[in-house]
Amino acid sequence: MSKKRGLSLEEKREHMLQIFYDSQDFFLLKELEKLGPKKGVISQSVKDVVQSLVDDDLVLKDKIGTSVYFWSLPSCAGNQLRNASIKLESDILSGKKHLEELNELRASLMLGREESNEREQALEKLKAIELEYKKLKEEVTLYADNDPVALETMKNAIHVAKSAANRWTDNIFTLQQWCSSNFPEAKEQLEHTYKEVKYKLGRH
């Protein structure tokens, strides 16, 4: 025996709306949760179904004191459908106007671009120029190391690095002299350390 199919969300919405339409009365949520199962809507899903109807303006709700009441009349659905129809008609008119504007723009852009032998030849020539430009650009990249500007920049960088190296060498030598003068007992050790550092730097 096949299992009975449950109601879809839209079917649940229709059944809950029918409760409002049949009674044309005001309900608390707990009252709707009791009436829902009689229409095939389980009490656990009544709250979500009713809220979806409120979101779509098919059911109205209002708080009176500490209680929240829900109600709906057939006229509510009619008004909602009329409003939706008006909006759709407005969207259609706006879309048609936008389409006309695009067609006019397309027509203006096509002026001077009509298909012809001259246009095809011009496009072919443009394509050939673009390919040649790409090829030349790649060749220039291969010879970038020989660029006079790049070489000059490299020379300047080497000069700066050399000056910095000399400056630090002088600083180290001055520091070595100061340490030797102030710590005579460590002079031999300092000279040995200086030679090791100088040797290691020379290797690199």
UniProtKB/TrEMBL annotation:
Domain Mnd1 HTH: 16-74
Keyword match Protein biosynthesis: no
Top-level taxonomic group: Eukaryota
Coiled coil: 112-146
Entry's Gene Ontology BP terms: reciprocal meiotic recombination
GO cellular component, one term: nucleus
UniProt GO molecular function: double-stranded DNA binding
Pfam families xref list: LZ3wCH, Mnd1
InterPro entries: LZ3wCH, Mnd1, Mnd1_HTH
The family this protein is said to belong to: Belongs to the MND1 family.
Function (record text): Required for proper homologous chromosome pairing and efficient cross-over and intragenic recombination during meiosis.
Record's protein name: Meiotic nuclear division protein 1 homolog
Organism: Vanilla planifolia
Taxonomic placement: Eukaryota, Viridiplantae, Streptophyta, Embryophyta, Tracheophyta
